[in-house]
Amino acid sequence: LKFAFLFSSQQYPVTAMAKLMKGIVGSGKGLVGLDGAAQAGFICGMLTELQAQHRAVLTAKYARREDTRFIAAVNLLSMDPTIAPSGLSNRIERQALVGRHFGEKVSIIEVAEITGQHRNTVNKHHFVIRDRLRALEEAAYGAITDVFACRGVIE
């Protein structure tokens, strides 16, 4: 999944001279070339077989932060009523805390200041959201593992 989400059509294969000078082939992340495009499409296509929540969690986990798929996944998860604790109706807070879980650089104090809440309240919400997202990640990993096994990608 990591390499499939990091695929970029702007990557080019290493030239013969660069291979000789470098000594090792391929040190970057992501798939390269037409084979990489096919593999990335094949793997990402399997995500469509998952529930929307599972697909969003895996996308948010592996997509680049500036990728529109990451942003859409965070938005979807932040609007999911099963993720937010009861009483948390502030969309900005939910979105910031979900994004924080998946690697966005957002501090609890910043979220508290923006939303006008005490930092302890925001911190409690963060712990609830974090625990629920971790449980959802476990379920998503199980689901994608089943899909990969059915398709023969893994044994």
Task: Describe the structure in brief.
This protein is mainly alpha-helical. The protein has 8 helices and no strands.
Account of the 3D structure:
By secondary structure, the protein is mostly helical. The chain is built from eight helices and no strands. α4 packs across α5, α6 runs antiparallel to α7 and α6 crosses α8.
Describe this protein with a few key phrases.
mainly alpha; single chain; 8 helices; 0% strand; 155 residues
Q: Roughly what fraction of the amino acids lie in strands?
A: under 5%
* Element pattern in H and E: HHHHHHHH
Q: Termini, distance in Å? A: 16 Å
Q: Biggest sheet, open or closed, and with what strands and sense?
A: none
Helix content: 55-70%
Outline: globular
Structural class: mainly alpha
Topology overview:
Layout: H1 2-5, H2 16-22, H3 33-46, H4 52-62, H5 68-79, H6 91-101, H7 108-115, H8 119-151
